[in-house]
Each structure stands twice: as structure tokens, then as C-alpha cells.
Design a protein that fits this description.
This is MAGUK p55 subfamily member 4-like. Pfam families: Guanylate_kin (PF00625), PDZ (PF00595). Keywords: SH3 domain. It comes from Sinocyclocheilus rhinocerous. The chain is α+β, with helices and mostly antiparallel strands. Among the domains are: 80 residues, Roll (Pdz3 Domain), CATH 2.30.42.10; 73 residues, Roll (SH3 type barrels), CATH 2.30.30; 200 residues, Rossmann fold (3-Layer(aba) Sandwich), CATH 3.40.50.300. It is 35% helix and 19% strand. It contains 18 helices and 23 strands. Strands 1, 2, 3, 4, 5 and 6 form a 6-stranded antiparallel β-sheet that branches. The protein has a 6-stranded antiparallel β-sheet with strand order 10-9-8-7-11-23. The longest helix has 30 residues. The chain is extended, with a radius of gyration of 34 Å. The structure holds adenosine-5'-triphosphate. Adenosine-5'-triphosphate binds next to helix 11, strand 20 and helix 17.
């Protein structure tokens, strides 16, 4: 398998075959319209008692009729007559019949003329076993041809290995995967190495002529459209196994890819959305990517799992977010929870997505804010709710600590016993939970659902490991990452701000706090960016607030890519 046969297209999109038929049908409607327009004009002229010969003369010279005749020439005689008679049958102007007869006769004369180039007759002495050859001429410019070639090591024949969707070869409709390449610009290619053919192509200018023996049984493409979100990064130029790196398409975690061809089990063709080019690129299929990841994973020395490192507990201690294992003093593996750990990434290199528009009568989507501790997640959440508490609301957390005198159950917290808390944990009722000074705290799915059921937009802040619990068909979370600006910018904007320490005290920010926030933010983004629906850089508080408000509205009002499993749940989801 070899590099892309680089040539190209340019121009001359050689549309043909079925597409011609489509044009034909599409024009039927517009012709009918034009002819109806003719009737209207003729009706007006007849009413004005204009001489019939003059009318015919002016009609034949009218620019719109000229363009009509041009269109007519592209169509078959029978369909034109069908259109014309269709119009004549529906008109009730007997006076116009003779004029139209003249028009039709003019059309017949023109359409009988042969405008095709004169081709030499086929030689009579063609051998019986002569293979049907196709000669394909493509105009080269600096775009790639959009096809790859391969050499059959046994026979030495050269074949078109694949045709890239939307590339020149594909648009021409003349080259197909499986076609046998016989000549390029008059050079027989039998026995050549693919690189030698690439060289011939590289040194060719202008029109390139391919002589091919077309594949006899072209597979029918009956694949349905598939959209996926990339859960990993991929660079074809770092992948020695790709058949042609130049035909490959790089992508980053979180990119939305439209898979346009899955006919090859190993190499799919995809377009990155939003797409500026119609030309697809090669990407590894799910199974191939999983295999690659497994190989890579096994080839690396063992490291304790580091994906979920955050900068520690949120210092505000609204909710102490120790990790589950830590909270219960167990060494439970984070592979159970972390949506991006090595195992789950291996399981899901692509996530199937669909375009989803929130229905006004359905509960709102949950808004989940996340970011490094100290960046301002809670500040932004608080401000958003303050803007309109009738629309935005947080979820009331659960705790095992006793209520203080001013606290009311279900207002500040749901006060429950440790046994009740443990039961909720066992039943997976918590989005996240942790332990602080001997008391358990947690945000439950039900608390979020209560807010959503009341018709409000629920806004919570979570640690990244909780993403898995909120990216569900039930909550349909829209995840917004609050990203720190640079350390220098934080020094300016947080000059008068205070950070809440782990000991409930607040103090002015120090330079090392900013460095820690920046590092934690980078780490979080690196590991979880594929789950972020939106990113807000919290530089100026006011501007960040406006951005948050806009993003939250957009989450509810505009179509978004969401996991397909939310819309059509599968057995696994
Ligand atoms: N853009 C900003 N400009 C100035 N000060 C800010 C900005 N964003 C947040 N702050 C201030 O920074 C401090 C920390 O913010 P906040 O408590 O919201 O952090 P956090 O991300 O929720 O982290 P934690 O959960 O650890 O408290 C607060 O005093 C807040 O007012």
C-alpha cells in the first residue's frame, strides 16, 4: 500500500452517468415553469391582438427562450416533448397552438442535430478476449488526486486501492477502488513499484491520462452516515501503519468526525466538522485504533494511573471532593469512575454522536461547570444563579453532618444518616461525594432531577471524574470548562481577590497559587477536553459571566452534538 497518487483535479469535475439523469429530472420542473411563463406572455400578447408571425419572431429571439433552448439541448427529445405537451395540455388558449407547434418544430430541428465530437470508428478486428479499458483524463493542479494505489505482490499488477471521498478521482466518477491501472500518461505500469508510478505522476504536468481496466463488481455503497466524537488524538504522520500518510487526516480529542466510508474494516474515510473541504481523509477504524492503543499501552512501562490528578480538593470546601476510594479508605481502582482512564479510552476511541436540539417541553439540560480549584468555578456559578434565581438553581447537596441552628433540611443540605448515605452510594445515586472531617457530603442525581423537574436550569460544579455520572440520557449534561488565563493575567485580575484555603480561612492569592491553577487547568484540559462542550477563559469576571450566560442559553436553544446513546439508548448504555 502506498502513498497517494498525487495529481489532480483542478477543474473539470467530470460529472457523469447517474448524475446526468438527476439533472434531467431536476430540470423537468423548471422547464415546466418556464413554459408556463411563455404561456402567460403569449396570453398577454394574444389579448393585445399582436400579429402571430411577429409574436413568433420576437419569441424565438427572446433571451429567456435562448436560454431555454440551451437547457433543452441538454435533455432528451422525449422528455422535452413531455414537458411541452404537459404545458400545452394544461393551457386553455387555442390561439397559441400554432405558435407552439412552430416552436416545437424549431426545437425538433435543433435537437436532432449532433453536437458531439466526431470519434473515429471502433476497429473491426478487436480480439474477442480484449478487456474493456477506460481512458481517464484528469487535469493536474496542486490538489491531490484522492486515490491510493497498491501492487499485487503475486501478479505485479497495480490496482487503485481506494478512492478518497470528495477528492478529484471520486468527483470524476471515473476511477474506483479495484480498477486495474494499465498505463499512466502512456507509460505501462505493470511490474512497477508504486513509488515509480508516483514519480511519473509527480513529473507530469497538465492533463494526466490513466488507462484502467474497470473492476467488474463494484461494491454497492449502502452505508449510513455516522458521526463520532474523537476520544483520542491521532496524527497520520506519526503512524507507520497508515497506507498513505498524505491521505490521512489528523484529529484531536473532542473533534467531531463525519465517517463517510467504512467499507474498509481497518481504514475509514472521514471529514472533520465543520468542514471546509469536501475531501475526506483516512483515519483508523474503531477496531484498528483499539488495537493500536492496546499495543502502545502494553509497550509502555507501568505507571500508576495519573489521568485523574487534580490540584486537590476544592479549597472552598463547599463540598469536599475527595475521590471515592480515598473517602472510604479503600484502594478502589479509579478505572471504575474515571471517564478517561486508560481502559475506558481503549474501549471507546470514538463516541457516536448525533445532532440534538433540546425540546422546549423536555427538562433543561444540566449545566456542569468544571475547572481547576481556585479558577472561579463557584464564583461564576453563584453569579449566574444570582442573575436570575427563577431560571437558574444549584442542586441541594446531601450530608451526614448535623444541621446548624440556622439551617433547614432540603434548603442548605439534605441531612441524612450515614447508613442512608451509604445506601445511596451503593445505589449509584451520587454524582460525586466525599468526606470532610468525619462527615460525608455528596450531590445526588435526584437533587439535580428535582431542580430540572421544577422547570429550572440546574447548574452544578463537578470534579472531572464525575463527568461520567452526568453525561447520561437522564441529565444530558452540558459541560463547561472554566479555563484559567495565563499566570500574568491572573496576577492582574485577582489582585484584590482572596482564595479560600483548606483550613476555611481566606487569604490573598500568591504567585504559586496562580502557577498551581494554571498547571492543574492544563492537566485537566489535556485529559478531559473531549468531554467539554464549551470552554470559557475566566480572565475578567464580568466578561466570563456574560460568556457563561450565552453558553448556557446556547446549550438549551441550539442544536448540539450529543452521545447517540442519549437519544437511542442501546443495551450497553
Ligand atoms: N475572574 C476573576 N477575577 C477576579 N477574581 C476572581 C475571578 N474569578 C474568581 N475570582 C475569585 O477567586 C476566588 C476563588 O474563586 P472560587 O471560589 O470561585 O474558586 P473555585 O474555582 O470554585 O475553587 P474552589 O472550589 O477551590 O473554591 C474567589 O475569591 C473569587 O471571587
Amino acid at each position: 500500500m502506498r502513498p497517494d497518487v498525487e495529481t489532480d483535479p483542478g477543474s473539470a469535475p467530470l460529472e457523469m452517468g447517474d448524475k446526468g439523469m438527476m439533472l434531467h429530472i431536476a430540470n423537468f420542473g423548471s422547464l415546466t415553469q418556464i413554459l408556463a411563463h411563455v404561456i402567460a406572455e403569449v396570453r398577454g400578447s394574444v389579448n393585445k391582438d399582436i400579429n402571430g408571425a411577429e409574436l413568433l419572431y420576437s419569441l424565438l429571439n427572446a433571451p429567456w427562450l435562448q436560454s431555454l433552448l440551451k437547457k433543452v439541448l441538454k435533455l432528451t427529445t422525449s422528455s422535452i416533448q413531455l414537458v411541452v405537451w404537459n404545458v400545452l395540455l394544461t393551457t386553455e388558449i387555442p390561439e397559441t397552438t400554432c405558435i407552439f407547434q412552430a416552436l416545437l418544430s424549431a426545437h425538433d430541428t435543433v435537437s436532432l442535430r449532433d453536437y458531439e465530437p466526431d470519434l473515429p470508428p471502433l476497429p473491426k478486428d478487436l480480439p474477442e478476449d480484449e478487456e474493456a479499458m477506460r481512458i481517464v483524463c484528469l487535469v493536474k493542479n496542486n490538489q491531490p488526486l484522492g486515490a491510493t494505489i497498491r501492487r499485487d505482490d503475486v501478479t505485479g499488477e497495480i490496482y487503485i486501492a481506494r478512492v478518497i471521498h470528495g477528492g478529484l478521482a471520486d468527483r470524476s466518477g471515473l476511477l474506483h477502488a479495484g480498477d486495474r491501472l494499465v498505463e499512466v500518461n502512456g507509460h505501462p505500469v505493470f511490474g512497477l513499484e508504486p513509488e515509480q508510478i508516483i514519480q511519473i505522476l509527480a513529473h507530469s504536468h497538465g492533463t494526466i491520462m490513466f488507462k484502467v481496466v474497470p473492476i467488474t463488481d463494484r461494491p454497492v455503497n449502502n452505508q449510513t452516515m455516522l458521526y463520532v466524537r474523537a476520544m483520542v488524538d491521532y496524527n497520520p504522520h506519526m503512524d507507520p501503519s497508515i497506507p498513505c500518510a498524505d491521505a490521512g487526516m489528523a484529529f484531536r480529542k473532542g473533534d467531531i468526525l463525519e465517517i463517510v466510508d467504512q467499507s474498509d474494516t481497518l481504514w475509514w474515510q472521514a471529514v472533520k466538522l465543520p468542514s471546509i473541504s469536501a475531501c475526506a481523509g483516512l483515519i483508523p477504524s474503531t477496531s484498528l485504533l483499539k488495537r493500536k492503543q492496546k499495543e502502545l499501552w502494553w509497550s509502555q512501562p507501568y505507571h500508576p494511573h495519573t489521568c485523574v490528578k487534580t490540584s486537590g480538593f476544592r479549597r472552598s470546601l463547599r463540598l469536599c471532593r475527595q475521590r471515592r476510594g480515598q473517602a472510604f479508605g479503600t484502594s478502589q481502582s479509579c478505572t471504575l469512575r474515571c471517564p478517561t482512564n486508560c481502559y475506558s479510552s481503549l474501549a471507546k476511541p470514538y463516541e457516536e454522536v448525533v445532532r440534538y436540539q433540546h425540546h422546549p417541553e423536555h427538562p433543561h439540560r444540566l449545566i456542569a461547570l468544571l475547572g481547576p480549584s481556585g479558577v472561579g468555578v463557584n464564583e461564576l456559578r453563584r453569579r449566574l444563579i444570582e442573575i436570575n434565581p427563577k431560571v437558574y438553581q444549584g442542586a441541594v447537596p446531601h450530608t451526614t453532618r448535623p444541621p446548624k441552628c440556622h439551617e433547614e433540611s432540603a434548603r442548605e443540605y439534605h441531612f441524612i444518616s450515614r447508613e442512608q448515605f451509604d445506601t445511596m452510594v451503593c445505589n449509584h445515586r451520587f454524582i460525586e461525594f466525599g468526606e470532610l472531617r468525619g462527615h460525608l457530603y455528596g450531590t445526588s442525581v435526584d437533587a439535580v432531577k428535582d431542580v430540572l423537574a421544577s422547570g429550572k436550569i440546574c447548574v452544578i460544579d463537578i470534579e472531572p471524574y464525575a463527568l461520567e455520572s452526568v453525561r447520561t440520557a437522564e441529565l444530558r449534561a452540558y459541560a463547561i470548562f472554566i479555563k484559567p488565563p495565563t499566570v500574568e493575567q491572573m496576577k492582574c485580575t485577582r489582585m484584590n481577590s482572596h482564595i479560600i484555603t483548606n483550613y476555611y480561612t481566606s487569604r490573598p492569592f500568591k504567585d504559586e497559587d496562580f502557577q498551581e491553577i494554571e498547571d492543574a487547568g492544563r492537566n485537566m484540559e489535556q485529559h478531559y477536553c473531549q468531554f467539554f462542550d464549551h470552554v470559557i477563559v475566566n480572565d475578567g469576571l464580568q466578561a466570563a459571566c456574560v460568556q457563561l450566560l450565552t453558553a448556557v442559553r446556547r446549550a438549551q436553544d441550539e442544536p448540539q452534538w450529543v452521545p447517540a446513546a442519549w437519544i437511542r439508548p442501546t443495551d450497553q448504555s
